[in-house]
Amino acid sequence: MAISDEEVVKQLESVPQVEPPDMRGAVMQRVAAGFSRPGGLKAAPTRQRHVLVSLAWAAALVIVVAVAYVERNSLPWEHTEATMAPLPFDRWKVVTRIGVPQEGRLTVRRNGDQFAIQPFAFNGEPISVAWDQKKLDMSDVLSDTGGPEVVILHKKNGASGWAVIQLNIGGHEVLKTAISID
Q1: Contact present, 177 and 96 (Cβ < 8 Å)
Q2: Which residue in 14, 68, 117, 174 has the fewest CB atoms around it within 10 Å?
């Protein structure tokens, strides 16, 4: 059974109050007895240790701040650069995926001004890729992709519109596709 807040308050208010014991006199006698000793309070050496420890911490803090300040001001911030690892081509956005049954397929991916051309032949014949060389340049060929070579193309400066990409299998044209390079 739950008890409400009001019931708890009523029960607490019904408890009679008790006067606290008077301890002030006993405490003051102990303090006065400590000052009357010839060496003063036993805490005097402890105070000296606290002061010394505090000074040591302050000195350490000053050293750390000074070293950090020197390090920060010695770095050539105006020449600092950051680099990011390039995004793997298989994570680029798919522009088109086109195929011809029993022949092969072609997947084109894009990342900015770069295009990854992934050809595939179903029958294992030799594959080649052709592209509009007025608008695209080859920048790389990736052969360790676990499949056929992937051709990386880069858009030429000033190129715009559409570019044609052609898949050739076994020496003959299998398919063509046009991609927007804008």
Answers
A1: yes
A2: 14
- Joined together, the tokens standing for residue 102 give 């029993």
End-to-end CA distance of the chain: 72
Q: Residue 6: in which H helix or E strand, if any?
A: helix 5-14
Tens digits of per-residue pLDDT, 150-177?
A: 999 999 999 999 999 999 988 889 999 9
Tell me which fold the domain 89-180 belongs to. Immunoglobulin-like (2.60.40)
119, two tokens: 């050809």
- Do 177 and 106 touch, CB atoms closer than 8 A? yes
Rounded Cα distance, 142 and 147, in Å: 10
Whole-angstrom distance, CA of residue 11 vs CA of residue 116: 78
**Distance of alpha carbon 44 from the chain centroid:** 53
pTM of the model: 0.53
Count of beta carbons in the 10 Å neighbourhood of residue 39: 8
